[in-house]
Design brief:
It is a single chain. The mean pLDDT is 91. Helix 1 runs antiparallel to helix 2. This protein is mainly α. It has two helices and no strands.
């Protein structure tokens, strides 16, 4: 029972750790989603501003195109970060599931061993009970023999006394 409690405590501890890690990764994902959303909004605003600039200054189109490309790269990188974090969370979940399966197997094996030990203990107790009965029977036999010896000794004394008289 103590080992079971220790195992359960260990599972709870590992589960808490994994949950904390998962929460941290989810916070990172939320942060990166915010960054991505901000990047999208920024990109849309910049595109509108670019259009205004293009309308005003046709000779700066190339520079604006470069800036747009850079913003798109920033946007793409934010999404890549989100995908990477999602994969890491998935891997953590898989690892947690595997650890739980491994623990369950070990726990079941421990239970089997415990049941075997209980069975052996029960068998030992049965043998002890049988041996105690045999010992008690032997004691009864010994007491009976002692009584017979005492009786015989008494008879011998009587015979000896009668013969001397």
């Amino acid at each position: 029972t103590q080992k079971l409690n220790q195992s359960n405590n260990k599972i709870n501890e590992l589960s808490l750790q994994l949950t904390q890690q998962k929460n941290e990764y989810e916070q990172l994902i939320l942060r990166d989603k915010k960054i991505a959303s901000d990047s999208i909004n920024k990109l849309e605003i910049n595109c509108k501003q670019l259009q205004l600039e293009i309308d005003k200054f046709p000779n700066t189109i190339e520079n604006l195109k470069k800036e747009k490309i850079n913003l798109q790269k920033e946007y793409d990188n934010s999404f890549k970060k989100i995908e990477t974090l999602s994969l890491q969370i998935d891997q953590l979940n898989l690892n947690q599931q595997q650890e739980q399966k491994d623990f369950k197997i070990k726990f079941e094996q421990s239970q089997d061993k415990f049941i075997d030990l209980e069975s052996k203990f029960d068998q030992s107790q049965q043998k002890l009970i049988i041996n105690n009965k045999k010992i008690e029977e032997q004691r009864l036999i010994i007491n009976d023999l002692k009584n017979q010896i005492t009786l015989l000794n008494s008879k011998n004394l009587l015979i000896d006394n009668n013969s001397s008289n």
